[in-house]
Each structure stands twice: as structure tokens, then as C-alpha cells.
Design brief:
This protein has 8 helices and 13 strands. With 316 residues, it is of the alpha/beta class. The longest helix is centred in the first third of the chain and has 24 residues. It is found in: Cell inner membrane; Membrane.
Length: 316
């Protein structure tokens, strides 16, 4: 089909260089374009529950929670599971340390004279090959110091495998005669087990309560060293006072000291020995229990009271 020129219609919009007139926009559409973008719909929120507690109620609640936590912890601890866990971890660690070379391989002792080695080993409580880190130093020292012959002890752990034990033994200062036998005692009055060979020349203490007063006795005797060197025995009388024997246990001069002012009486005896040499006059007993009176006894005389007789030994 052929088109005639009259069938072709060119409008103003189709002509080159001619702009199309803007379309009319409806008021509704204009309003929609000029309006700000719509906000997204907010999510629905549930209302919060607000608890208005008083300070007392809050404190009570905190206390209740603390009780619940403590009760739970106590129940867990009482079950023994934490202790077993700690013990298993410690055992594994000590075993590993021993395998790494930290084990007891050498034990040395210094200061031992009379204490039996088997007693020390038993009190130490460890054997060769044990983990050295497992040795309880404090407990071992307490056990060793509890031995009758040990006064003090110190233990050193010398890594990787040596333990050194240093002890101070109790030193005998007297022989205690009890139940027809002799026992060594130190200044503290503690009995020292073992034989007395080598200590036969120590002073003899006799009587109930004598060992407990040994330190007091030797402190008194030390105030007059020359006279103290001649003391052979000390007899505790009724656990109140002392009778001192000089030069010989059986035949020596016996000095009866008072319960009170004992030191003054001891000084008085020392002065009499220096100035009058009583022991050389065949005197067997001197009673110093009365401060202003001196009573003597000799082999030849039954009793002499220097307040009325015996001018050679009368006190000035």
C-alpha cells in the first residue's frame, strides 16, 4: 500500500528543535512528590516490667543470693570433688618433677652425737627416690624437735636432690637419780635417753621436782663459780628448797639452803669457805636457813650453834 503525502501528518512535537511542553501534573501527584519520605514502621516493643524495690528489699535479695551461692559452694566442697581434683593435680605434678630429677638422692646430717640415726630418718619421714618437692619441711622439723635428745633442728632442701639436716642436741648438765637409776637431764630439766657413760662426773640431782628446777639451780650456782665447781649433788627437799653437797656425794659438806633468799645464803656460804675453810674443819653440815644464825655439825660434835658457841667460826 502506498502512502500519499497527504496521509503523513507532522505535529509540532515531531518537528526538530521544538521542545515538548511539560505535561500537567495533577495536584495529588505533586503532593506525593513534595511530601517527605515516609518513616519506616517502628517495631512493636513489649512493655518493660519495672520493679520498684525498697533499699531493704534489695538488701534482702542480695543476702538471699549470697546464701544460695554459699550453700552451693559448701555442698560442692563437702562432696570432696575439688579436694580430689587438687590432690590429683598435685600428685601428677610431683611425679613429673621426680621423673625430671627432683627426687631425694642424698640426706646429710650435722650436729648428731647421741641421737640414733634411725630415729632421725623416721622423724624426717622421707626416703630415697621420693619427690623432693613433696617433703614438708615444717612438719619434719616439728617431728625431729620432738625427739627427746634434740633441742632444735633446721632442714634445708638443696635442689635438685639433696636434703641437709642440722640439729642441736640437748646437752647433759646433771644426773637425775630416780627409782634407783640415773638419767641425764639438760638445763631445761628434760630427760635425755641413752647411756650415762662419759657423764659420770656430772652433778647429781635428787628429789621430786628436781629436774624441773635444774636451770634455776645452775643459775644460782653460777653466781659463785669457785664454789659451784665443788658441787657434787643437789637434793630437792619437799620440792621447796635445796641441800647442796660439796666435794663428795656421801662424805662431803652438806649446806642446807633456805626456801627464800637462797642466793644470799649461797653467797654467805662462799664467803665462809674463803675466810674460814669450813670444809677443812671436819664439819659435815652447815645450816643456812636462818639468816642471823649459823648451825654447824661435825663428826666430833653433835651440833654447834654459833650464836652461843664455837668462837672460831662466829660471824662478825
Amino acid at each position: 500500500m502506498r502512502l500519499n503525502p497527504s496521509d503523513i501528518v507532522i505535529t509540532a512535537d515531531d518537528r526538530p528543535g521544538v521542545h515538548r511542553a511539560p505535561r500537567q501534573i495533577s495536584a495529588k501527584r505533586r503532593t506525593e512528590q513534595e511530601a517527605p519520605p515516609a518513616r519506616p514502621k517502628a517495631k512493636r516493643r513489649w512493655p518493660r516490667l519495672r520493679l520498684d524495690f525498697s533499699p531493704v528489699q534489695r538488701l534482702a535479695g542480695m543476702g538471699l543470693m549470697a546464701v544460695i551461692v554459699a550453700a552451693g559452694g559448701f555442698a560442692l566442697w563437702h562432696s570432696g570433688k575439688p579436694q580430689r581434683l587438687v590432690r590429683d593435680i598435685a600428685t601428677a605434678f610431683l611425679s613429673s618433677s621426680a621423673e625430671a630429677g627432683f627426687q631425694v638422692a642424698d640426706i646429710t646430717v650435722s650436729g648428731r652425737r647421741r641421737t640414733p640415726p634411725d630415729q632421725l630418718a623416721s622423724a624426717l619421714g622421707t626416703r630415697y627416690g621420693d619427690p623432693i618437692l613433696a617433703v614438708d619441711i615444717s612438719a619434719a622439723r616439728a617431728r625431729i624437735e620432738a625427739l627427746p635428745s634434740v633441742r632444735a633442728a633446721a632442714i634445708e632442701r638443696r635442689l635438685p636432690g639433696a636434703i641437709h639436716l642440722s640439729i642441736v642436741e640437748r646437752q647433759p648438765v646433771a644426773l637425775w637419780q630416780t627409782d634407783n637409776r640415773f638419767v641425764l637431764v639438760d638445763r631445761d630439766g628434760r630427760s635425755i635417753p641413752g647411756a650415762i657413760e662419759g657423764f659420770e662426773d656430772l652433778p647429781l640431782v635428787v628429789g621430786d621436782g628436781a629436774p624441773a628446777r635444774t636451770d634455776e639451780l645452775f643459775a644460782l650456782l653460777a653466781t659463785e663459780p669457785d664454789l659451784a665447781a665443788r658441787v657434787k649433788a643437789a637434793i630437792r627437799v619437799s620440792n621447796r628448797r635445796w641441800n647442796i653437797k660439796l666435794d663428795d656425794v656421801e662424805k662431803g659438806l652438806e649446806a642446807r639452803l633456805p626456801e627464800l633468799d637462797t642466793q644470799a645464803a649461797w653467797h654467805r656460804l662462799a664467803e665462809l669457805e674463803k675466810t674460814r675453810a669450813l670444809s677443812g674443819r671436819q664439819i659435815t653440815m652447815i645450816d643456812l636457813r636462818v639468816p642471823d644464825r649459823l648451825v654447824l655439825k661435825s663428826d666430833r660434835e653433835a651440833m654447834v650453834n654459833t650464836a652461843s658457841a664455837a668462837p672460831p667460826v662466829r660471824e662478825r
